[in-house]
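Example 9 (inverse folding). The structure is encoded as follows.
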């Protein structure tokens, strides 16, 4: 058998020629082209992917979707390599069960709105804050914890949305804050110029020691990691990145190249994964994902129990399963490949450790 991504480049080229015949190889490698050509409609998906009856049914009922649809051409090329109903497909294609809101599910499952200290600035801990720079992402994950915001004012409008001036003012006058996590949405959908301006402003605050960026671009839009972006990021070190790979199928040569560029610039890489039912909640997939991440120089940091976000029950696995998987991995893999298993229960109390340690049995 050939290694999983031996034919990656050939497949990518064939898919581009078939699905986006007007695009050149340079277009395909250009993150702005990828963003402009995100597929946002059922017809757009049906045009380029062979679909199962189940996938077709869900795409035909947009009234049931919990959030808009948005998938980069690059990610579509990975979905095309999977069988219908495959694991990566289920992370980004809608499901009719999204319309079912279960008891105990919320539109703001982490209670972030109550912890907002300035527009888009969430303080749930004394020394660190979460800055939600934008509601837009390159691709929308169906299990998104902030789906209430996802896609609101996407596209050019949101990337040019108000600069977080009030959040920066709050940070300047709050010396207890040492750690700023910039997330969203995905802050890397911003232009280089805008990102540079935000990062320089945060770096100029003397009491801010650590800057972190949460981004899924290396998994769904690796073209975003350009030499120009890397220069901007490295200029404000110490800067750490929290990536978001969910499945080994995302660990492509393009993703590996994106990670290498970041690492070569002295930017440490961590990963966060959500435990997803039928997608990555088995020992074999978790092992391939976490060992694959280490090979790319990325430390598996958090494995998250799925938040109680409205309409995500069909994607939520169980705490017992997550614990059992990590328990089984211990001793089988390098200790570096074992993430912390976390839960962030409704109510805004913050994260709790489920593994190792942690006593929230059955939570
Ligand atoms: C997760 C989170 C952080 C960062 O938490 P770490 O455990 O330090 O990675 C910060 N603020 C908020 C609101 C969070 O949810």
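The amino acid assigned to each position is listed next.
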């Amino acid at each position: 058998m050939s290694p999983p991504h031996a034919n990656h480049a050939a497949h990518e080229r064939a898919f581009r020629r078939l699905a986006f015949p007007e695009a050149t190889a340079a277009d395909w490698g250009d993150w702005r082209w990828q963003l402009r050509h995100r597929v946002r409609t059922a017809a757009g998906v049906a045009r380029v992917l062979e679909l199962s009856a189940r996938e077709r049914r869900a795409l035909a009922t947009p009234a049931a979707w919990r959030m808009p649809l948005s998938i980069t051409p690059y990610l579509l090329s990975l979905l095309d390599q999977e069988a219908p109903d495959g694991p990566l497909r289920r992370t980004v294609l809608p499901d009719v069960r999204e319309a079912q809101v279960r008891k105990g599910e919320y539109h703001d499952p982490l209670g972030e709105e109550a912890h907002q200290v300035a527009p888009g600035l969430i303080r749930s801990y004394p020394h660190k804050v979460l800055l939600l720079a934008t509601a837009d992402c390159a691709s929308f994950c169906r299990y998104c914890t902030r789906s209430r915001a996802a896609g609101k004012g996407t596209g050019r409008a949101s990337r040019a949305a108000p600069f977080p001036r009030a959040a920066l003012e709050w940070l300047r006058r709050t010396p207890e804050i040492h750690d700023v996590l910039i997330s969203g949405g995905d802050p890397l959908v911003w232009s280089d110029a805008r990102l540079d301006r935000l990062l320089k402003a945060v770096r100029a605050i003397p009491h801010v020691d650590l800057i972190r960026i949460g981004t899924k671009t290396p998994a769904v839009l690796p073209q975003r990691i350009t030499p120009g972006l890397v220069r901007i990021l490295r200029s404000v070190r110490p800067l750490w990145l929290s990536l978001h790979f969910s499945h080994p199928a995302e660990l492509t040569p393009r993703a590996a190249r994106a990670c290498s560029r970041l690492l070569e610039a002295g930017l440490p890489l961590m990963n966060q994964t959500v435990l997803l039912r039928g997608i990555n909640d088995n020992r074999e997939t978790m092992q391939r994902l976490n060992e694959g991440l280490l090979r790319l120089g990325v430390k598996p940091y958090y494995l998250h129990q799925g938040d109680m976000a409205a309409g995500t029950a069909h994607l939520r696995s169980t705490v017992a399963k997550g614990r059992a998987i990590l328990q089984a991995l211990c001793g089988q893999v390098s200790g570096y490949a074992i993430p912390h298993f976390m839960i962030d229960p409704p109510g805004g109390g913050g994260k709790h450790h489920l593994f190792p340690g942690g006593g929230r049995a059955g939570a």
